[in-house]
Write a structure and sequence with these properties.
With about 100 residues, the protein is mainly beta. The chain has one helix spanning about 25-30, and strands at about 5-10, 15-20, 40, 50, 80, 100. Strand 3 and strand 4 (about 50) form a beta hairpin.
Amino acid sequence: MIEENQQWHYTDSNGQQAGPVTTTELRSLADEGQVSRESMVWSEGMENWSLASQVEGLIPPKPAAPSIPQPNPMTEPTVAQPAPTSAVANPYAPPTACLLYT
């Protein structure tokens, strides 16, 4: 289990070794983008440096961006587009687009 006051050494975004910092400070650096889950980290008791992503619970993954729902062509109406013409459109003409339900 990782302690909040545990001391860590890490490689920053430029690949330079830095530290020691506490777990809390390391997570803050991750939030600021100075440390990532691909950064190398080491703490007392570890045999070798490891990717931060491989140290369970050290730096949580960023939440995925919400996905934008795509329209369902079976349930949502689509607007028929008029065919392009070379003539100048009459601003007083009735609309030519209509809703189609497929």
